[in-house]
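Here we describe the complex-level prediction in full. Unlike the single-chain runs in Section 2.1, the two entities below were treated as one system.
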Amino acid sequence: MIKKTVILNFPRSLTTEPITYKLVKEFDINFNILKARIKPNEEGLLIIQIKGSKDNLDKSMQYLDDIGINWKLLSNEITWDNKVCVHCTACISHCPTDALNIDRSNMYVNFDHDKCIACERCLDVCSYKAISFGDLK
Amino acid sequence: MSKTISEINEKIRKGTAVVLNAEEIIDVVEEEGLENAAKKVDVVTTGTFGPMCSSGAFINTGHSSPKIKMQKAWLNNVEAYCGLAAVDIYIGATQICENDPENKIFPGKFSYGGGHVIEDLIAGKDIYFKAIAYGTDCYPNKEVITAINIKDVNEAYLFNPRNGYQNYAVAVNMHSDRSIYTYMGILHPNCANANYCSAGQLSPLLNDPLYKTIGIGTRIFLGGAQGYIAWQGTQHNPHQKRISNDTPVSAAGTIALIGDMKQMSTEWIRGTSLVGYGVSLAVGIGVPIPILNKEVLKYTAVKDEEIYATVFDYSEDYPNGKVNSIAQVNYKQLKSGKIVINNKEVPTAGLSSYAKALEIANTLKEDIKKGNFELSEPVAKIPSTNSTIKFKSMSKTNK
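The structure predicted for the assembly as a whole is:
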């Protein structure tokens, strides 16, 4: 099983297509929606984490290409800029997975990217704009 | 056994002064006792870094040609106060950008304002500047549009009417059924999180709780420059309830600060955006405490677990001016990441950076050890517990 995070940009004509349904049904893809902004007759945006065999993932990507969805892989969903962070710790109690955590011996904030589920709860909490949503900024 | 500030300065000039930060002094006093430590240690450095809304900058832009008496002025589209002489302005930290959507789509982002203008000035960035006027015989110009830069203006200095709060509230949301967006951060319903804002054992006024050494004219670290305490801050309240070590249990004393922005660094001065609330300025302050005697030393050895803060509800009590203590917790508990309120474990987070506060205390320590920073004798005291000043609210408010 391979896990990838993909950002999908839907043209207006495709916002009513049941794309995630097809990914599950035809390619046996396991997915987790991280962000969705899809309304009929507007361009849509979907960020999903997908899991599946390499073969099925390749086929899924081919399917997305075929129907005309502009997609790209997100390697870095949430970014935390150590140089901008002042280590106030305001984000800490809002992070559900301890991806944002403190070394209590010196009170410096750290970010463990592997633990981050991109729930975005930290985005509004940071007063210094040290945390941003990767490519979407 | 006592020392004077001039004796300490003599040691600083010779490079023999013993300087410790307010964290290190705790262990030294524990190991060596007050008597010995007071002989040995000359200065204890403190620090704090956090949003301090009552901050702002005076700028004299220099005259345009022809001259203008500015009536209204904007820096990067943020309005500055012009009710002063022709080209003197004051840009306040919490002033929001013109046409900011505010909280129309709640919660507003408040991504740029006075605090950010101050940070951008210090960063050396060009600032888009516009001023308008009605025109006079001596100042005929009615509009100026240009770029200004800190290196070109005559003066740019911070003058912060209220900084360095001696302790502060811990904020929770007890009553609202939705998350609330306050200057104390985002607070979730049912007391789901608690935010605090003090450097605790490193905080300047908590290390000199009765203002025995800190006074008007005290030279300090301000935003990376050498600044001064100009006055007691607004809302200075020495009569806040105190515990036996003389530290107050909530917001008490404050200081008004002044310092040259041209010498400052964005490492220690930062604009902040508090979602749903507005903009502010994070200020880095360090105050040296001369160890004149063992009484002064004893105060500097105060520890996080000996400093208490009061938990207040920011959903109903605070907005309505009700002073209703929900709990009292100490800074060791707050810094551990959880406190207990009404038998419930509540996660905590700070708004004041302890890590930065310690960096400031250490920077100041090194500056003093290198002889780059001498202590100043305060020219007057700030009002303490024996003063008659009283902290008031408005006597009449419209219903």
